[in-house]
Amino acid sequence: MKIKKATIDDAEVLGKLCLEIQGIHVKLAPHIFREPTHQDLVDTFRERIAAPDYTAFLVFDGDIPIGYIVLHVLQKPENVFTYKRTILEIDHIHIVEKYRRRGNCKKLFAKALEVARSSGIEDIQLGVWARNDRAVAAFKALGFKRQFSIMSLENTENLESTN
Prior knowledge:
25% strand, alpha+beta
């Protein structure tokens, strides 16, 4: 297995890999997630890779791309409620199904940690859907802990008026 930093030339491959994970997201929450075209994804990855606050890495089995991670540096300014923070957000991560449970995700997370350390960033975060049990378990195994939850009310039809 080898890992390389993605360039704009890798946008096609990233788009193809992303189609698989986006399909999983659509199945989990079709009222939220869209089914973009491959070209939509390619264009998005080109934009993100070109942006100074994004970095992406691809993992390969020989010459076959089998997964990726997209990292985003978020600058959170100080305000009346919180201190200024710089966060390395794992914006996307995906390993092709047949290559999971072989340490590939762990290798990509090691790259994220390397980026964070070299940038002096102490906080790495990611978002995961509570219903995505496999991803939650994988991230917990890598040392991630739940810091907060976002709760959603998906159906407001049965709410009683408070007036």
